[in-house]
Design brief:
18% helix; 9-stranded mixed sheet; 34 strands; 4-stranded antiparallel sheet; alpha+beta; 12 helices
């Protein structure tokens, strides 16, 4: 949203006038005891609530955590409590009252500059400033007449500097002499290391003396500010906001991995939202989880803590959650995939989601094959089903936008797609003569081919997909010189089979086996009558000889000279052995 910068003079006047009006109109004690009817009940034991993990914002394990809470977002009156860590719990050191922004608190992560609302969340104390160092371990600026806090949108924005400054830069010397910055700690909102500085999101957020509503600071008694500074060290934090924005009835381990993950994700302002259950432990392998309005966080010793939500969480739950084959999450959800998709890794596989396909599980060999093809960016695209098992010989398959992956123990996972997959399916897929694929599709003879247990399928744009199987397929694979098949396997009149290829033919008969012929040798054979002619079936492959090409047949051979002259030679018929003359006998 757009914001307007307000001059330091206006802020200063506002602080003084509002303080005077409130001091005259309403005794402080009466306001604490009588909050507005619509507000939540103030929490006076925040240290115990923090120890029980009942805060929406993390203390990040700090040695000291200060709470500054109002009964509603529109209330500036605060209860302020100091907590110190003792082992794995926090105990109260002190409690006081004070004010926040004139109009109360902004929602977490909302730009609030010049709205006169204090920020909501958990912030660190990193620096302090005032008239003289009271003995703090924080970096300390002793204020002088040139001390300024940057409000102009330049390199000094939201930090201490010394100089004349601009209209929006706070004059720290003036405010100190008015009593407000006699002592102050910097609430590290909108600045490193807690966050990257965003111009216009906020500046000059202090925990300071003066006890008056302001443009967004937290103010209380000078004695309390001095006490906080004397005990503070870098890394101590303040949790501030309306009661309902800060506390939850659901408990978790405040020092645990789930609480830390929730804080890093952005707490209640993240997509997770507010807690919706307590932290539950004792899951498989010692794991734990907590449910939030928008999703969940699961933790395991092996995988750590990870968020999960939406369609991916639903799919994971349907697959048995941590008790199923997927196991615990091994990553957060990753977004920004092809066509707006998302994925999440688990101990036993992955779930991918896209608007067009929904959420589907991939694992094992099929996942590896898909990964090798480029995941959703490759030829397969997104999965359109989960893996289906129970196929022949213990196989399984999974469908994708661009094809199918089949897996079997004997062949591993292989991709089939396009015309080759259609041809394979037409002969019964893994139940047919080809069995399972033993390779992925590869470039071959100006087109593509794919190997199967029982043969090969070749494809070109001119010939389409052709199956080469059986004895002809074995011969084809042994030679690999014929190029793609241009016909299906065909029968002959005498029980033989043949198939045409780009660079020749293979002819088979049960008595002679499978043999390769060139186009010219086959043409000469056909001209001589083919298998019904005097030559019979081929008994050897066509071969190169000194005189040209020669091929042997059952009853002869064909020789084709370099000039194309065809010589057909028939073998002589088997010779007969003469019978012995009958022996004459005497009369």
């Amino acid at each position: 949203m757009s914001v307007l910068k307000v001059s330091v003079l206006k802020i200063s006047v506002l602080k003084v006038l509002v303080a005077a009006v409130l001091a005259l109109a309403v005794p402080a004690g009466a306001v604490v005891l009588a909050p507005p009817a619509s507000a939540a009940v103030q929490v006076y034991n925040p240290c115990a609530r923090l120890s029980a993990g009942q805060t929406k914002f993390s203390g990040f394990g700090a040695n000291r955590v200060t709470f500054a809470t109002a009964t509603s977002r529109n209330t500036s009156l605060l209860t302020i409590t100091g907590c110190v860590r003792s082992g794995n719990r926090y105990v109260q050191e002190w409690q006081d009252w004070g004010y926040g922004g004139q109009y109360g608190f902004a929602a977490q992560n909302r730009e609030w500059e010049d709205t006169y609302r204090s920020p909501t969340g958990s912030f660190s104390f990193t620096e302090a400033l005032g008239r003289s160092n009271p003995g703090t371990a924080l970096s300390y600026y002793t204020i002088n007449s040139r001390s300024r806090w940057g409000g102009e949108w330049n390199r000094n924005y939201n930090q201490y500097f010394e100089g004349t400054g601009g209209e929006a830069d706070e004059n720290l010397w003036t405010f100190m002499n008015q009593g407000y910055y006699e002592q102050a700690a910097v609430i590290n909102y909108n600045r490193p290391p807690d966050s990257k500085t965003v111009l216009g999101a906020s500046y000059a957020i202090f925990f300071h003396a003066g006890r008056a509503p302001s443009a967004g600071c937290v103010s209380t008694s000078l004695a309390t500010v001095r006490r906080l500074l004397r005990t503070s060290r870098p890394g101590d934090r303040i949790i501030m906001g309306a009661v309902d924005d800060v506390f939850t009835p659901y408990s978790s381990n405040p020092f645990g991995a789930i609480s830390a993950k929730y804080a890093r994700a952005g707490g209640p302002a993240s997509w997770l939202g507010s807690p919706a259950s307590r932290e539950v432990t004792g899951l498989r392998g010692g794991g734990a989880y907590q449910v939030f309005r928008g999703g969940s966080i699961y933790w395991s010793a092996a995988g750590g803590a990870h968020t999960i939500g939406g369609a991916i969480r639903s799919k994971w739950a349907a697959a048995g959650a941590q008790n199923g084959r997927l196991g615990y999450p091994a990553s957060d959800e990753g977004r920004g995939l092809e066509n707006g998709g998302a994925y999440q890794s688990f101990q036993g596989g992955r779930i991918h989601w896209s608007r067009a396909t929904g959420a589907h599980v991939t694992w094992g060999g099929i996942l590896s094959a898909w990964a090798a093809s480029g995941y959703e960016r490759g030829v397969l695209g997104y999965p359109t089903s989960d893996e289906t098992g129970g196929l022949k010989d213990g196989g399984s398959y999974q469908t994708f936008q661009g094809g199918i992956v089949h897996w079997s123990p004997a062949t591993g996972a292989r991709i089939t797609r396009g015309a080759i997959r259609t041809a394979w399916a037409a002969v019964g897929s893994e139940h047919g003569v080809l069995g399972y694929p033993t390779s992925n599709e590869y470039a071959f003879s100006g087109g593509a081919a794919q190997n199967f247990q029982g043969g090969t399928v070749t494809w070109t744009g001119q010939s389409g997909a052709r199956i080469v199987a059986g004895a002809i397929g074995a011969k084809f694979n042994a030679a690999r010189t014929l190029g793609n098949a241009t016909t299906t396997e065909l029968g002959t009149g005498l029980g033989g089979r043949y198939q045409a290829f780009r660079n020749g033919f293979i002819t088979w008969h049960r008595t002679t086996g499978a043999h390769i012929s060139t186009a010219s040798s086959r043409a000469a054979w056909i001209a001589a009558g083919g298998e019904t002619g005097p030559l019979g079936f081929p008994t050897a492959d066509a071969r190169q000889a000194a005189s040209g090409t020669v091929q042997d047949y059952q009853h002869g051979r064909i020789a084709i000279a370099a000039d194309g002259t065809v010589t057909l030679t028939l073998d002589p018929p088997p010779s007969s052995t003469p019978s012995a003359a009958p022996t004459e006998t005497g009369g």
